[in-house]
Amino acid sequence: MAAKYPYPLNDILIKSRDAAKGGFDVLSTGEKLAAALVLNRPDWLRDTDYTMAEAIDRVGRDWLAQIPQAARILDEEGLVSRE
């Protein structure tokens, strides 16, 4: 089955959905940081011992550019934290 979204957006969505469903600990550090940003989970950033600025730097330009769209998609699915 073909990916619904292009790379890297599709990967970000998959990893963020996995994290939201309890799979945060199995992700790589970069994936964890991206998921935390997408899902609006500053507590996850603290758990990884990264600040917001450090997370943005670590995620990198290509993935960072896709985070707003990923957040909109996952917000529609009810996965983005509003706290």
Give the tally of β-strands: 0
Return the string of H and E elements: HHHHH
Largest sheet: none
Helix content: 55-70%
Number of helices: 5
Could you explain the architecture of this structure?
The chain is an all-alpha fold and 83 residues long. The protein has one domain (9-76). The protein is built from five helices and no strands. It is globular. The N and C termini lie far apart (35 Å). The mean pLDDT is 95.
Give a nutshell description of this structure:
The protein has 83 residues and is mainly alpha-helical. The chain is built from five helices and no strands.
Feature tags:
83 residues; mainly alpha; globular; single chain
Topology:
Blueprint: H1 9-23, H2 29-38, H3 42-47, H4 52-59, H5 61-76
Helix pairs in contact: 1-2, 1-5, 2-4
